[in-house]
Amino acid sequence: FSPLAVLLTAIMSLAVFIVQGLTAFYPTYLVEMKGFSTPAATTVFALLFASATVVQPFAGTLQDRIGTKRALMTMAGVLVISLPVITVMSSFAGVLIATLMLGGIFGTTPIALTHLTKSFPDEISGSGLGLVRTVYFLIASTGSFVVGTMADRGLFDESFFFLSTLAVVILIATLFIDRVSE
Questions:
Q1: How far is CA 121 from CA 2, 25, 63, in A?
Q2: Residues 85, 164: contact at Cβ < 8 Å?
Q3: What is the number of helices (H) and of strands (E) in the chain?
Q4: 89 pLDDT band (50/70/90 cuts)?
Q5: What is the rounded CA–CA span in Å between residue 7 and residue 4?
Q6: Contact by Cβ (8 Å): 93, 102
Q7: What is the tens place of the pLDDT at every residue in 17-71?
Q8: What angle, rounded to 10 degrees, do the helices at 105-119 and 3-32 form?
Q9: How many whole angstroms separate alpha carbon 49 and alpha carbon 132?
Q10: Which of these, 76, 72, 79, 75, lies nearest to 98 by C-alpha position?
């Protein structure tokens, strides 16, 4: 595997880790930490996924217009801001706006996956992509465990700061996309 494939796999692993950690406990977080009713929390949670339906095509268009590196930086930058903002927002409207911004996480993997797929030689494109997807899903699947463990220890807000820190790592990693060889 090329250094570019390794870098993009790391970016996708972190992005899906964030998705897993966030989506596994977001309704619970909204109920326990924000005091939302269960119907309000599930409505906000549904809007997170609704924003994903807008973000994913937007991310692809953004990648076509400004390139992989800048598109990934945009998506990660939105997360760096929106994850901590959720912890300080107390109003329903504020949490709702920050949640819609969180949809940016769903734009990172299509961008990275498209670029990664193009980086494989034709003779290993199927098996290489299959291996990479297995690796990043395996790593990412621990996201809900980590967030759940932190929440059990009374560190629910801190888990969102941790996820935001991972978004910063994605942001920094994207700086190297043009510098590593295929």
A1: 10, 39, 21
A2: no
A3: 8, 0
A4: very high
A5: 5
A6: no
A7: 999 999 999 999 999 999 999 999 999 999 999 999 999 999 999 999 999 899 9
A8: 160
A9: 25
A10: 79
